[in-house]
Design a protein that fits this description.
alpha+beta
Length: 89
């Protein structure tokens, strides 16, 4: 629901306990051909570019795109994150 009273700004990383590689992929029929294309559309309307992952909000598949959004100047709370039952879904 993106209604948490806490944000990434309220946290301080103190240890890396796991490492999980993340990738960005789009459908072969997607209009996005480069990461620049995707970021431009995402910045224009973050809610219209859904981001999916195999973990609940707060898990690694959720945090990775939120960190990417933040680095791109997109407020993480505006991102449309869709959790799936597993990473292969």
């Amino acid at each position: 629901t993106n209604k948490s009273p806490s944000t990434l700004a309220d946290t301080t990383p103190i240890a890396r306990l796991t490492e999980e590689p993340d990738i960005v992929v789009v459908s072969k029929d997607s209009p996005y051909r480069t990461i620049a294309d995707l970021l431009a559309a995402w910045k224009k309307d973050p809610a219209r570019v859904p981001v999916g992952g195999g973990s609940s909000p707060g898990g690694p598949d959720h945090l990775a795109p939120m960190l990417m959004a933040q680095a791109a100047g997109i407020a993480p709370r505006t991102v449309n994150y869709v959790p799936f039952d597993g990473g292969g879904e």
